[in-house]
UniProtKB/TrEMBL annotation:
The gene is Pqlc2_1. This is LAAT1 protein. The keyword Transmembrane helix applies. Keywords: Membrane, Transmembrane, Transmembrane helix. One of its GO terms (cellular component) is lysosomal membrane. Signal peptide: none annotated.
Length: 96
């Protein structure tokens, strides 16, 4: 089954979103590393973002279809959102 134009454009939008979402954490990481301090970091924001990313990623993983044959396809379709959620979750741990 080849993806149609709408499905492919949704996947591309998800990939672009993933890049922007992951890229949004690097300025804060750079500030923390170069200043060797976390002063000025609003930790509640990162705590809530971690909880949101964790629940978002878990909802995608737990929502996988039962048949093994369609799990791989569903995983590929949601890969950009999984990478975005788990990747930002991983980066937020370093920010904290």
């Amino acid at each position: 089954n080849s993806p149609d134009l709408i499905e492919m454009s949704g996947f591309i939008c998800g990939c672009v979103s993933c890049v922007f979402y992951l890229g949004s954490r690097f300025p804060q990481l750079h500030k923390n590393v170069s200043g060797r301090s976390t002063e000025g970091t609003f930790f509640l924001l990162f705590a809530l973002a971690r909880m949101g990313n964790c629940t978002c990623a878990l909802s995608l993983v737990l929502k996988m279809p039962k048949p093994e044959s369609s799990r791989a396809l569903c995983f590929v379709h949601h890969l950009s959102w999984l990478v975005g959620s788990f990747g930002v979750l991983f980066l937020d741990i370093f920010v904290s």
